[in-house]
Amino acid sequence: MLLSRLGKRVAGLPAAREAVASSGTCLRNSGRAAGFANVALLAGTTRILNRYWGLAWLLMTPTLWAQEAPIVDPPPVLGPTDVIGRFPRSALSGRAILSSTRTEILREQNGSSVTVISGDQLRESGRPLLQDALRGTPGLDVVRSGSPGQQTSVFIRGAESRHTKVLLDGIPLNDPSSPSRAFDFSNLTVDNIERVEVIRGPQSTLYGSDAIGGVVNIVTRRGEGRPKYRFRTLGGRYGSFQQSASVSGGTDRVYYSAAGSFFENDGFTTAAPRLGNVENDGFRNGNLSGRFGWLLNETTDVDVVLRYTDADAQIDGYLFPTGPVDDLHRKLKNETFALRTQVRTELFDGTVEQKVGFNYSRFNRRDTDPGVFGTAAFDGQTVKFDWQANTVLYESVRLRSVLTTGLDYLDEDASSSATTSRSLHASGVYVQDHLVFDETWSTVVGARWDHYSRAGGTGTYRVTTRYVLEEAETALHGSIGTGFRAPAINELFDPNLGNLGLRPERSFGWELGVEQPMGDGDLVVDVTYFRNDIDDLIVYQFDGTGPFGGHLANVDEALTAGVELTANFQLGEATSTSFGYTSLDARNRTTDSRLVRRPRNKFRVGLDHRFDDEGVRVGLNYQWVDRRDDFDGAGFVTALDEYSLLNATVAWEYSDRLQWFARLDNITDETYEEVWGFASPRFAIFAGATILLGGDD
Questions:
Q1: From the centroid of its chain, how far is CA 671?
Q2: Calpha distance 640→408 (Å, rounded)
Q3: Could you say which of 154, 232, 284, 428 would form a disulfide bridge with 450 (CB–CB 3.0 to 4.6 Å)?
């Protein structure tokens, strides 16, 4: 949805409304015209899907269209807290959120629990891998099995890692060839990322399968202005070395960003030294990414996003009942490719916006260890078509209503060296209405229906709301909704464990919170209680049949509930501090046991200070993680010790074109394990420099 200025009731100011209308972003009543428009868009979408190969060709040759397209007048220059148009045609404001409604809304209108990590924050962290930048996010646990490049899982509010939906600009990244369609964060770098939005709680109404715990939505950088060139190098302990380069820019007709990087790390022993292991496990990662857009005319634009990763990591073996053991020759090679092409159009003076997208992702994994059953290879592919329309049903000084409708079709394919190619297909339809009353009360109501070729149909819904008490500036926010995860290809067709009769996993979740600013907004505190009940969990069940004496079945139930507390305090113009605490009760209700690798308590404290005269910024971050349950080498439940980490970052703006930076990890040299039997990094120092060329002077 298009937004005007952030000030209260700004939609009622004639001057502001005329200014926004002059840039082609006015929201007007559509009445009967909007209804006819939706019918026409649905019919047009059907014809487009029937000819999707032709559409893909047209999207990949947008310059043919652009040659005769009129030049678009540049949008007006507004303040830094304004959204001047729909993304990706126009840059996102720092106050905007994309993921909670699949449209651009202000944070002040959002009732969901969302954490936004900006591109500047990613770059200032000095961390090459996104998994490390996500650590410390409220309600989110990052668990890695050893050194960089090893299996990395993300748990949102205690749900399983397979219950985390991961998207890159709308491209589904969950791997259909993995055992449960979970996404492995081990190889995803921060290159060319503009922001990451983490939405907590069931989100299947907008995003379909897998979004039981939440969604991680990654947004690729959109270029603008004169060409900007960025060169970065980093080095440090464990033989770490990274080089990256990027270019971005744009005119009134095109925008572009492209980046490439190479990261290598000699690593440390992934299998824990306490088990007698000494061999270091290295990691290599090459990455290419880009975003390219063409503004064909005042109402139509084309957007293309792509990302390619080629990585290999040395991995260790496993010996029962000892646990992880050194393997001097084994490697896991990963190759992934993701692409999205999108056409976006506006009709009826911007009252109706529609998007048609084609998404493609490919996954290839190779394990170099021959093993008992030969060299393992896994290949997966996802193709998705989606259509979305946003229609302004009504807008006045006191009320605004935006209706979002959408269709999508998904096809998954997976194969391995031990099984033939298998596929699943699914279709979904959803509707959502976003209502804003008096700029103080925002409510979203949505529903969805999905049908999977093997698992059948399922319906989901979600309602969110946020109400601001103007006098006290207190914001009450909450949500209630359902989610589901369709069985993965491996869970259905695996010759040893598969079960064609599996049903979707389902969840019912809700949350209620309050946000209170104090001291003229210098201190903002938010407290949220959440609960998520998950039914029909797919687990292994012994039934005396099959090669291993059992099969996968829908038998378990789980509960995840807790409290998230965040506080941000601006101590002065140059100093700020942040605090986050999560209390989590995550348990299997069938067996009455705690879910493994989820801490009952954890907290984080951060302090940032700028020395403006010297151009230096210093950041400190302390994190404590409570005890967790896990399985030992023989499969019995054991406890992992609590641990704490103290990290620091230093950045020095030597000039407008040169920045030096350093990062100190695990300053207290803590010894700990995130997964039983797998080591974690000790004290390390990393340093590097960033060179900026071009851009606006």
A1: 30
A2: 43
A3: 428
